Amino acid sequence: MAAVGGRILASSRTDPADEDHGGDGENKSLNFKVSPDFKKEFKGFAVSQGITMTDLLKEGFALSKKKRQK
User: Fold this and answer.
1) From start to end residue, where is composition biased (Basic and acidic residues) (predicted)?
2) Cα(11)–Cα(19) distance, rounded to whole angstroms?
3) Can you name the residues that pair with 1 across neighbouring β-strands?
């Protein structure tokens, strides 16, 4: 798991263990690499907020999208 120059490296590797299994069958897996420290901090923050890592990612994306579209 690596980040280069602060950037997250994307991967086209598919890991069945990472699949998001929702009831609607429409969910797709996002596969990208982050540093172990980032993952630990991200997961810890999600847990401290009582939300899933997926929900934290979605919330962060929504906030970033809103900010950048101004």
Assistant:
1) 15-27
2) 14
3) none
Q: Is the pTM of this model over 0.85?
A: no
Q: How many CB atoms within 10 Å of residue 31? A: 12
Nearest CA among 60, 33, 32 for reference residue 46: 60
Per-residue DSSP letters for the chain? --EETTEEEE-----GGG----TTS------EE--HHHHHHHHHHHHHHT--HHHHHHHHHHHHHHHHT-
pLDDT, one tens digit per residue, over 2-31 is 445 555 555 444 445 544 455 567 899 999
Token pair, residue 5, equals: 């120059």
